[in-house]
Fold this sequence. Notes:
By secondary structure, the chain is an alpha+beta fold. It has a single domain, classed as 2-Layer Sandwich (Alpha-Beta Plaits). The protein has four helices and four strands. It has helices at 12-21, 23-36, 62-75, 88-96; strands at residues 3-10, 40-46, 53-58, 78-85. It has a four-stranded antiparallel sheet. The protein is elongated. The termini are far apart.
Amino acid sequence: MPKYMFSGSYTSEGVAGLLAEGGTARRDEAARIAEMLGGTLETYYWCYGDTDFMCIMDVPDSAKIAKLSLHIGASGTFSGKLTPLISVEEMDDICNADIGDFRLPGQ
């Protein structure tokens, strides 16, 4: 099943909600959302610095996880980044893939 990392930073509105609900509530909501999309939440962490949180989800449908990311971005409560994760085995397949002949710019 495809894996995605979602990370983000809260706006002042999002921080107010976090302070009111606590960190466990946000993790539980991420798990609920992953299950709603037919997947699972693998892990959820809080961070210091530019990123406030990150989670890894297994979600079978790339369109649904991308739409979730768009809705979250439109909410104004935090800015997020959705990153597809590639396993070692998938990278081996990528490295061995035959993509045919093509010409790079300037060649």
